[in-house]
Each structure stands twice: as C-alpha cells, then as structure tokens.
C-alpha cells in the first residue's frame, strides 16, 4: 500500500488482496488513522486482485466511520471483478466511484488537490 496525502484527503493506493485477517485489518487500521484526523479518503483499487467478505465489511465500516466524522470515502478504478462484487453486494451505492485518482481529485474542492507527501 502506498499513501499520498493532500491538504484534506489521503489517497490509499492498494495492491494485492483485501481479505480475512491481516490484509483487511491493516487496510482498515491505516484508513481509520486518516479519518480520525478528519481527512477524506480516496481508495484506489486498480491493484486489488481479490476482496472477500471481510474486505467488504471493512469498506462498510470505513464508510460509517467517515460519515460519523463528516468525511467521505471515494473509490477509484476498481478492477472488473472487484467492481462486480461491489455492485452485486450493493456496496458500490455507498461510494462515489471514479476511473482515476486525478478525476476523483478534480471533483473535490481545489483546496483538497495539493499533494503534500507522497
């Protein structure tokens, strides 16, 4: 996982799997740290090969935590299989989805788009 940070948003570039135990827990722990700091999340999923029910559960949990803190979680470029699973489980309806990080950033207020750390 690579992380880029803007003024108000963190961009999580995920690779591999978001599955039961370690992968899902690590993703959730890192994402929650940004939400605690009231930063919006952009979750880039093009490198995710597989997501299971634990990974889906973590996405739902992040959505709920983001709403509770007044933040948003946005999904970027899910691979076809991941996108289909998100749609099948109706999780896709919880998130705004964009084809690229740049397009997700373009849809945010200008103050969010300046990258501070990469």
Structural notes for this entry:
This protein has helices spanning 22-36, 53-69, 80-88, 101-106; strands at 2-6, 9-18, 40-51, 73-76, 96-98, 115-117. By secondary structure, the protein is of the alpha/beta class. The chain has one domain (2-110): STAS domain (Transcription Regulator spoIIAA, 2-Layer Sandwich), CATH 3.30.750.24. A 6-stranded mixed beta sheet has the order 5-4-3-2-1-6. Helix 1 (22-36) packs parallel to helix 2 (53-69). It starts with a strand and ends with a strand.
Concise summary:
This protein is of the alpha/beta class. 40% of the residues lie in helices and 31% in strands.
Radius of gyration: 13 Å
**In CATH, what is the class?**
Alpha Beta
User: Mean of residue pLDDT?
Assistant: 85
Helix content: 25-40%
Strand share of the residues?
Answer: 25-35%
Count of DSSP strands: 6
Poorly predicted spans:
111-118
Overall SS class = alpha/beta
Q: CATH architecture, please?
A: 2-Layer Sandwich
How would you characterize the largest beta sheet? 6 strands, mixed
First and last CA, distance: 12 Å
Number of domains: 1
| Adjacency order of strands in the biggest sheet | 5-4-3-2-1-6
Shape: globular
**Succession of helices and strands:** EEHEHEHEHE
CATH homologous superfamily annotation: STAS domain
The name CATH uses for the topology is Transcription Regulator spoIIAA
| Tally of alpha and pi helices | 4
């Amino acid at each position: 996982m690579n992380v880029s940070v803007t003024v108000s948003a963190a961009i999580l570039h995920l690779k591999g799997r978001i599955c039961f135990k370690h992968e899902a827990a690590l993703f959730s722990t890192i994402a929650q740290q940004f939400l605690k700091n009231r930063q919006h999340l952009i979750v880039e999923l093009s490198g995710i090969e597989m997501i299971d029910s634990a990974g889906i559960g973590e996405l739902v949990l992040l959505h709920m935590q983001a709403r509770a803190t007044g933040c948003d979680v946005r999904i970027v470029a899910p691979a076809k299989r991941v996108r289909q699973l998100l749609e099948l489980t109706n999780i896709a309806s919880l998130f705004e989805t964009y084809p690229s990080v740049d397009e997700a950033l373009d849809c945010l207020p200008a103050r969010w788009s300046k990258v501070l750390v990469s």
